[in-house]
Amino acid sequence: MEQPSSGQSSPRNAMRWVAIGVAVAGVTAAFGYVGGWLAPQRLTPEKVVDALQANGGQHPGYRRNHAKGVCVSGYFEGNGAASAYSSAPFFQATRTPVVGRFALPGGNPYAPDNSVPIRSLALRLTAPDGQQWRTGMNSMPVFPLATPQAFYEQALASRPDPKTGKPDPEKLKAFVGGHPEMGAFLAWVKQAKPSASYATETYYSLNAFYLVNAQGRRQAVRWRVEPEQAAAPGSVATAGDANVLQEDLSRRIAAGPQRWKLLFTLAAADDPVDDATRSWPAQRTTIDAGVLVLDTVTAQDSGPCRDVNYDPTVLPRGMQASADPLLAARSAAYADSYLRRTSEEAGIPGAARMQSEKR
User: Fold this and answer.
1) Catalytic-role residue among 59, 63, 64, 66
2) Which pLDDT band, with edges at 50, 70 and 90, does 241 fall under?
3) What is the DSSP letter of 82?
4) Which of 62, 231, 232, 258 could form a disulfide bond with 200, CB atoms 3.0-4.6 angstroms apart?
5) Is 334 annotated as a binding residue?
6) What was the pLDDT predicted at 17?
7) Record's InterPro entries (predicted)?
8) What CA–CA distance (Å, rounded) separates 258 from 30?
9) Which CATH class is domain 62-136+192-346?
10) ∠41-182-286 over CA atoms, to 5°?
11) Catalytic residue check, 59
């Protein structure tokens, strides 16, 4: 084949380079848009995490939300009941190791355990072939807001006043008044009582997902884990119980494994799938998929959950995320928070030594 002479290029080669240039420019523009570089007013993960950080204070090496927590581990014992709905390996009659984390909302790792009535439970299940299912659940059945923009605006409205150290009540009142979708959440808050145990809470996925079976059929679901152990009569976190949740969990697990049922609620055709502020009717079909067993508790600064990003969009084959806009926003914000805290660990006393010992 005849080659072009030195210093020359054929029209075909020229067009090829133009096409490559256009493609590269397109990818660059896409990344610029996602990162907010080309649209300064656009909401970005960095803005969301900056807002959380401003509210919770500067605590290097910690998560920007759910900063106070404790590592747990154990396993999930699938019973096969959900395998007709999903080809994910966890839902066969099999045992899968779990690394989890109980935590409180907020960016202060030293907050007292009675400071909020909400607790969270994050899990990472890993199959023998490496597939993972990561989930972050909360002890409230609905989320207060439906969009990332509203969540960001709430964070701004909740920012502590430098003079009082507390949010401006008028700003919060105005924000709530402008968001009627918060009704279901506020109704829950009015009757919620902060328990004195992580182990006796029910934890909800909040967002909807899809289970996908071997034939490709999708079923929208939400899930929850319900405790098999009961709360002690009158067990409520009170003032002065700064670390009551971790201390209670340590005592309970020392006495024996703690157990929760994993329950999938199947959506009907007209149930809202992309709005976490709206609940589904109580009579929807529920599938008992197996039992979560947690039998080890360790401090979060040295435990196996420390370096896990509990991104809820990390899903195995047989599960898919819904189009709920909060899911993509959670994934992006978790990634930003993860990069910040892991890059800060070198500056935390003892962190370098612990990392060396782990190796």
Assistant:
1) 66
2) confident
3) T
4) 231
5) yes
6) 35
7) Catalase, Catalase_core, Catalase_sf, Catalase_SrpA-type_pred
8) 46
9) mainly beta
10) 115
11) no
